[in-house]
Amino acid sequence: MRERGAVPAFYLYGEPQRGVAEGFVHVESLDDRSRPSEWTIRPHLHRDLHHVILIAEGGGAMTAEAETAAFEAPALLLVPAGIVHGFQWHRESQGWVCTIADAYFAELARRDPALEVLFRAPRALSLRTDERDAVATLLGAVQQELNWAAPGQRAAVESALLGILVRGLRQARPAGGTGMAARREAEIVARLRARIEERFRLREPVGVHARALGVSITALRLACSRVAGSSPAAMLDARTLLEARRLLLYSNLSVGEIADAVGFEDPAYFSRFFARHVGVSPRGFRKRAATRAHPASCASSSPSTR
Description:
alpha+beta, Arc Repressor Mutant, subunit A, four-stranded antiparallel sheet, 12 helices, disordered C terminus
């Protein structure tokens, strides 16, 4: 059984969570899973899998963590591993869903650090018609290669996949540096992200992370600034806040229990930390989210209802 209020974690949507092969790539048409689900994909996450979703026709809305964004075709959606996400598609929307193992993407990003920006955050990118057609052709090529075992299959898949990722990258932002220093900094930040994911509940100081990574605090700060556009401390806080928002939205845990779950011994201090970064208290955040989800019922409630 899932623990109380936990967000469902799937391999592919609807499939039980299991280990992900290092070189895993999967492509399927948008309606393969969306049509049986009445064009609604409920909030869930994939622990080790990224999505690149081409919306060739139609549109819809993407919910990622606490934010919802509408989009219209043609568009390219990028969904990082570990992000709680869901979709409400317009009926009869058409497109492709490409799923990539995080370990495989990390290897591609080590070869070209400019790619690292792609799955830094969920996003919806508008495409021109010619870009849509180019990405659709590449996704079709990946699916065809995956459906047979011809010589050079892995190289063919990777070639088409890189073409898709580069188009997404150029829509997201101009390419960054690709020298040895940039590669080293990208590797440091990737290792920090992995360490934060494993240990953010411990609330360790930046110096502890720097020592574990074998770099100075100054070098770590510089790498994070150049690669992630953030400081190590801000990255640590962002992961804590992400987990706190998830638990407030998708669990029935009390604020005190959530504080403990993200590494705060003092619930009052956690509430101040949350309010300082989010602009509203944890209880206020949860109440606001409930109001948005059920505006009619909240509006009709008696003022004395708690």
